[in-house]
Structure formats: C-alpha cells, structure tokens
UniProtKB/TrEMBL annotation:
<protein>
    <submittedName>
        <fullName>Sulfatase-modifying factor 2</fullName>
    </submittedName>
</protein>
<dbReference type="GO" id="GO:0120147">
    <property type="term" value="F:formylglycine-generating oxidase activity"/>
</dbReference>
<dbReference type="InterPro" id="IPR042095">
    <property type="entry name" value="SUMF_sf"/>
</dbReference>
<dbReference type="InterPro" id="IPR016187">
    <property type="entry name" value="CTDL_fold"/>
</dbReference>
<dbReference type="InterPro" id="IPR005532">
    <property type="entry name" value="SUMF_dom"/>
</dbReference>
<feature type="compositionally biased region" description="Basic residues">
    <location>
        <begin position="376"/>
        <end position="392"/>
    </location>
</feature>
<dbReference type="GO" id="GO:0005783">
    <property type="term" value="C:endoplasmic reticulum"/>
</dbReference>
<comment type="similarity">
    <text>Belongs to the sulfatase-modifying factor family.</text>
</comment>
<dbReference type="Pfam" id="PF03781">
    <property type="entry name" value="FGE-sulfatase"/>
</dbReference>
<feature type="compositionally biased region" description="Basic and acidic residues">
    <location>
        <begin position="356"/>
        <end position="368"/>
    </location>
</feature>
<feature type="region of interest" description="Disordered">
    <location>
        <begin position="356"/>
        <end position="392"/>
    </location>
</feature>
<feature type="domain" description="Sulfatase-modifying factor enzyme-like">
    <location>
        <begin position="84"/>
        <end position="353"/>
    </location>
</feature>
<dbReference type="InterPro" id="IPR051043">
    <property type="entry name" value="Sulfatase_Mod_Factor_Kinase"/>
</dbReference>
Length: 392
C-alpha cells in the first residue's frame, strides 16, 4: 500500500530506496507537527473553533463524539449488542496460504496448519463500541492521538484539511494532523452516520488494549484465516473461488483520483452492509478495513535475524481491489506487515477468545475409573444371573 516513488529534480530523477523514502516522509511529518504549516501560527486559542480565511470562507469545525453521561455507555452497548456476537470455530487443520508463486507477501506456498477451538467476533469492532470503551477508559489515548497524525486517503480530504493539515505521502495518501478514530479524515470530520462502521486509525497496541479490557485477545493469523476459510477450504474467498458482486467493500475505479462507488460505498461501510461472507456467519472478513492479528509478519527468503519487527494484518480494505491492480488483491490468504504503531484510515480489528473446553480430552484417571466401575457392574450382573439360574 505504501509504495515508494521517485524523487525528481529539474535536471534528472534520482531513484531512492524504501528506507530513504520512509525517512523523507517522517521528516515531512515532523515538520508538520512542529507547526511549520502556516495556519498553525494563525490559531486563536481564545475562541475555540477556528475560522480561517480561505477561498471558500468555511470554518473548520471541531466535532466530537457524544458527551459522556451516566447510563449512556450501557445504552449504547445494548443498542449495538448484536455487533459484538462471537462465532465458535472448532479446532482442526486446514491448508493456509495461497497457491500463487508470484505473491511477495509470504502467503505462498500453501501449508497445512492446525488450530485449537476459539471464538472470534462475527464483525470488526465498530465505532459505537470503541466509543463506549473510551468513555469507560477516560484517560486512554490512541496511538494516533498521542503522535498527532495518521494516514488518510487524499481523495477524501476537504480543501481546508488538505491545505493546512496534511503532508503528501505515498501515491494517494496523506499524513493528516489531528486525524484519529473519531475524526477519520481530519479535524473537520466526525463519526456522525458512521457508528456501525469499523473503527479505524487504531494501532496494534490500541486494538490489544481494547480486547484485553473485554477479556479477549487479538486472533492469531492462522485463526483468522481458518475462520475465513470455514466451509470453503482451499478457496480464494470466504464464499468460494469466484468473485461475487456486492460481497465486500473494495476500490472500484482508478487509483487514487476516482472511486466510482459501484458497491455503494465511498470509504468504509457498515459492517453489515453485505451479507455474511461465509456459511459460518462472519462478516467483512475481506474488504472494508485491514485487521490486526497477534502474529509476527515473517517475509520469505529473509533470514530470521534480519526480519523486521512487523505485525501481520489480514483481509484487505476499501482501497484494495479484486485483481490487485489497485494496491493489493483481496483474498483469504492475503497479508500485510506493519509496525505496531502504524495507524491509517483503512486499518481496524476484531477480537477472539480461546475455547479450550471444546478441545479437552477425558482425564486418563477418569477413564480408568470409569472402566473399573463398568467392570465391577458387569461382574455383579453376571453373578446375579448365575444365582437366578441355580435357583431355577
């Protein structure tokens, strides 16, 4: 997704490697955060919402999530309770990965993997539930809030945000100041009308913290893919090998300046906007947002001591495509590695919980006791039978 580009000068062009490109992006972002943007100097602290003199002469409004009051958290959690349902995946073995030698993400080759029984959320965590969590954990701040910025698709920025709050990044992306989970496209946006959309701009640590608060955890990569393939082993998509329209929220159009909204959604979509993607009842496994797992991202053909400390994300997002011509191809085996503090408008998560009660085997002593008890009962019945026979 974050593809490096060429740095051009007036006389020639210089090809730079990925590390240099990342360093340049970080310098630009640091400059933005230090207040070198013009409008940061013109801020008026006394008046709250700022009115900037722009061509449109429209104010930048500071939206926020609903004000916390006693009982509101319980009311919201009750109203959106169906989006927290978990689905049981009984343990077993399956073929993990993709049979595509051209893939460079480590999904090839296919290999057989075993997993134990577990529960996983039927839907990605939605904005309403994350808001309820934040209302209960008042002093928690997300990674994007602490560092002051996050990645957003440039096409969806307002003119004011693009001009005064953003720094251009990789093709189609911008580092936006004050973009976080409840301001998805910058300070002039809110969650209004998006309470059932998956929460975004959350890092791996943010996701893990949410899961732990609810007595859950992040799924491992094999667990996530096992759930996606439930009922359709060795298939490309959760429903089979053939792509079906209106089954997932992906990019349709030319990247990065056109999204023709053929699936009915410009950015993220409600987690139940499409029917369940497999027979087990999981929604939004592929498309909409990438989802964090607890597994390290291991690259092929790289020695263990040279591996980057990255975490695996699964599923693809609304900026990816079926064919892979736009960003990455969405499919069950697709994966992406990112740093733990990475945040973006197309990254979310769902929770999991182990279910060892479905994998427990009878204790050996109990089995022996049962066998002995059954043997005694058999001998008693046999003796009683012979006594009745002698009496006759």
């Amino acid at each position: 997704m974050l593809n490096t580009s060429f740095l051009a000068s007036s006389s020639n062009s210089l090809k730079i490697n990925q590390n240099d490109a990342i360093a340049l992006e970080e310098l630009s972002i640091q400059s933005m955060l230090k207040g070198e943007i013009k409008m940061a100097i013109a801020s008026n602290r006394k008046r709250g919402p700022r009115l900037y003199k722009t061509e449109t002469k429209e104010p930048i409004q500071n939206f926020s999530h609903p004000i916390f009051k006693p009982g509101l958290v319980d009311e919201i959690r009750y109203s959106y309770r169906k989006y927290r349902e978990m689905v049981l995946a009984r343990g077993g073995s399956f073929w993990m990965g993709t049979n595509d030698p051209g893939s460079s993400t480590g999904e090839y080759p296919m290999r057989q993997v075993a997993v134990k029984s577990f529960y996983m959320d039927a839907n990605p965590v939605i904005n309403a539930d994350y808001w309820a969590f934040r209302a209960q954990k008042k002093f928690v701040r997300s990674e994007a809030e602490r560092k002051g910025w996050s990645w957003v698709v440039d096409l969806f920025l307002s003119n004011n945000t693009r001009k005064f709050y953003s720094v251009a990044g990789p093709v189609g992306w911008a580092a936006v100041k004050k973009a976080h989970w409840d301001a998805p496209e910058g300070p002039d946006t809110s969650l209004e009308g998006r309470w059932k959309h998956p929460v975004s701009h959350v890092s791996w640590s943010d996701a893990r913290q949410y899961c732990q608060f609810h007595g859950k955890r992040l799924p491992t990569e094999p667990e996530w893919e096992y759930a996606a393939r439930a009922g359709v082993t060795n298939r490309a998509y959760p429903w089979g090998d053939n792509w079906e329209r209106q089954r997932a929220n992906v990019w349709q159009g030319k990247w990065p300046h056109e999204n023709n909204k053929a699936d009915g959604h410009f950015m993220t979509s409600p987690v139940d906007a499409f029917r369940a993607q497999n027979l087990v009842g999981f929604y939004d496994l592929i498309g909409n947002v990438w989802e964090w797992t607890s597994s390290a991202y291991v690259e092929r053909m790289v020695q263990p001591h040279l591996q980057s400390k990255l975490v695996t994300l699964k599923g693809g997002s609304y900026v990816d495509s079926v064919s892979g011509r736009v960003n990455m191809a969405v499919r069950c085996g697709q994966r992406m590695g990112r740093k733990q503090d990475y945040t973006a408008a197309n990254v979310g998560f769902r929770c999991a919980r182990s279910a060892p009660e479905f994998d427990q085997k009878p204790d050996a002593r109990q089995e022996a006791s049962d066998t002995l008890s059954n043997g005694r009962k058999y001998r008693k019945r046999k003796i009683a039978f012979h006594r009745r026979k002698e009496e006759l």
